[in-house]
Design a protein that fits this description.
The protein is α/β, with parallel strands linked by helices and 210 residues long. It has a single domain, classed as Rossmann fold (3-Layer(aba) Sandwich). Helix content is 34%, strand content 30%. A seven-stranded mixed sheet has the order 3-2-1-4-5-9-8, sandwiched between helices. Helix 6 packs parallel to helix 7. The chain is globular.
Length: 210
């Protein structure tokens, strides 16, 4: 089983547990608010990538109920929960690496919890795809676990199963955004302990298409 299929199996099996643990997005809400604040258009079209049980979609719709949000994920049970949690949104079974196949443009792309499952090359390609599918002045939100890329490898999930997790570095993410005419308007680090007390660092980057 390859890395992607292994991750799908874990998230599909543990969708309900994930929902119970992570529907509260409090750590990220200040950055979500910045994403919202930079999309001025009413009835904006938003893509929520790797949406899980719809936790980010739910927060965004509470802030901006006029938005038209489409969520994508590869775990069917996650999508089922997302639909229950967000009846006003639309959800599709789709790989983050295939967003071009939706054949549409977006006012905003939210990629909150996906990059740790994409390799460096896939993350850079995702930025390329996101930039190409955003309208001018569209907003891209990225967050990822930050560390030296060479430390990527198998990690034990909260359910006790192993997943391959990628760490990413701000430098090459910034460079990819710059190459695709994306202007960074906000970046920050968020630190929190994992279940074993080890400190995890997340990097948040918000960029606007020029």
């Amino acid at each position: 089983m390859d890395k992607t299929q292994a991750a799908i199996a874990v998230f599909d099996k543990n969708a309900q547990r994930y929902q119970e643990q992570f529907m509260d997005t409090g750590l990220y809400q200040d950055s979500f608010d910045l994403f919202c604040d930079h999309i001025k258009k009413s009835e904006a079209t938003i893509l929520d990538v790797a949406c899980g049980p719809g936790n980010i979609t739910q927060y965004l719709l509470l802030k901006r109920p006029d938005w038209h949000i489409t969520g994508i994920d590869l775990a069917p049970n996650m999508l089922a929960l997302a639909g229950v949690n967000n009846p006003a949104a639309i959800f599709h079974l789709l790989d983050a690496r295939a967003i071009r196949s939706l054949n549409r443009q977006w006012d905003g792309i939210m990629c909150g919890f996906c990059l740790p499952y994409l390799s460096r090359e896939e993350a850079v390609q995702f930025i390329n795809d996101a930039a190409d599918t955003l309208y001018q002045h569209g907003v891209l939100y990225l967050s990822t676990m930050e560390d030296d890329y060479s430390r990527s490898g198998l990690q034990t999930s909260g359910s006790g199963e192993q997943l391959y997790m990628y760490y990413h570095e701000e430098g090459y993410l910034r460079e990819a955004l710059k190459q695709h005419n994306m202007n960074i308007i906000h970046t920050c680090r968020l630190c929190y302990p994992d279940k074993n007390g080890k400190e995890i660092t997340d990097r948040v980057i918000i960029a606007v298409k020029q």
